[in-house]
Amino acid sequence: MDIAGFVALNRFGLGCRLGDTPPAEPRQWLRAQLDGQDNLALPTSPSTADALALVQTQIESNRSLDARPQAQAPAHSGATTDLPPRFHLIGERLRQDIQALLGNALVTDTPFRERLVWFWTNHFSITAKGFVPAACAGAFVREAIRPNVNGRFSDMLLAVMRHPAMLAYLDQAQSAGPDSIAGLRRHKGLNENLARECLELHTVTPASGYTQGDVTNFARILTGWSVEAKQAPFGFRFRPAMHEPGEIDVMGQTWPAGEAGGVALLHWLATHPCTYRHLAEKLVRHFVADDPQPRDILRIETVLRDTQGDLRAVSLAVIELPGAWVPGAKLRTPQDYVIACLRALGKQPEQVPNIGGLISGLGQPPFQAPFPIGWPDRAADWAGPEAILRRADFAYAFAGRAGDLDAGQVGEAVLGPLLHHDTADQIRSAGSRREAMTLLLGSPEFMRR
């Protein structure tokens, strides 16, 4: 049995689904997933406009509450019964979006493409704090990430930076230039969050040598990039009255006034050599090893540069890295692990109505990363004693849902030659079906991809 087919399913995909046959031509199978449309198995989330309309409905609902106004609390990915009434409609929308996103991962026939969606969603991490980011989280993935997974990074960056979920999450919507009409009349302030995170996390990183002055000037260029959430048409809106007038210098370049200046600067940042190196390192870390080899980073960086950020070409190049086919080099994050368990037991989305809650229980609640940098991608961040104990408890609890499935047969089907002989022997000698399945799901081979 060819080990490469199982590596493709686990390393590049989301784990082998019970009943799947490992691809005979793994690289060809992966390449084929980057062609054609991004076909979602489950209904897509509502548009950003619909999500923002829901925000207005939530606000009107809150006005009718007799209780004293409460501070906005972040929505959780579990059941919505623990949400304060002032967040309930949007919290339920967020839960549905998370269930659709994760449920699609259980049944998708293009798991490599779905993993790329996850990777870029984490690169441009948003947290569902406040009404707009929570209501628009699903639309953010569907509108800003999915259509650009096979496109150019510059297009994805622009889509992300103009999306209401990101603008609201990083408090950009109310940022006004000090010398703008709104800034002078209303004394509105400049907010640097979006500019700072774009430079530090999304594009060039501090390795480029940008200064605090560059951050401030970038924030001035982005003033006026806002959200229309009060009346149709809902969505991104450039507000000239909030925009800082005049040309502005950032990183040694002069950028024109107006929305066009911000668009031009973002394209320049997206195609900067330091951005390409940053993206290359993250991609190699995700698909190859926690500590990437310089030669692998250079290879992906070169492809990014030569194709001007063509993400499809980059994904194809990652497939060709020899180290990407070394079994078990990456520890599964909680989200990876839960999805792999569900796929291994052949679960359908309707059988697991709270997938987000399961993942939250292991410490990685969807759309709740504590910082804009997103979730970490190294084993050290997920392999502490408490985290491993949680996984062991999860494996035991989840094994109870396996019914009459034979753990030995499941292990052979989803791991094949990746399952070590010693582990297979322990599974065969287990005292019960549940114990055997716990051994499989809690094994090092299953924990890694």
Mean pLDDT: 93
Strand content range: under 5%
The number of distinct helices, counting runs of at least 4 residues, comes to 22
**Helical residue percent band:** 40-55%
Distance between the terminal alpha carbons, to the nearest Å?
A: 18 Å
Low-confidence stretches: 71-82
Supply the helix-strand structural class: mainly alpha
Largest pleated sheet: 2 strands, antiparallel
Shape: globular
What would you report as the Rg, rounded to the nearest angstrom? Answer: 23 Å
Give me the oligomer status.
single chain
Instruction: Give, in spatial order, the strands making up the sheet with the most strands.
Output: 1-2
- The helix-strand sequence is HHHHHHHHHHHEEEEHHHHHHHHHHH
Give me the count of strands.
Answer: 4
Please render the helix and strand layout as text:
Blueprint: H1 3-12, H2 26-32, H3 48-63, H4 88-107, H5 111-123, H6 131-145, H7 153-161, H8 164-169, H9 181-186, H10 193-202, H11 212-222, E1 225-228, E2 235-238, E3 248-250, E4 253-255, H12 259-270, H13 273-287, H14 294-306, H15 311-319, H16 334-344, H17 355-361, H18 385-399, H19 407-414, H20 421-428, H21 433-441, H22 444-447
Antiparallel strand pairs: 1-2, 3-4
Write a short abstract of this structure.
The protein has 449 residues and is mainly α. Helices cover 52% and strands 3% of the residues.
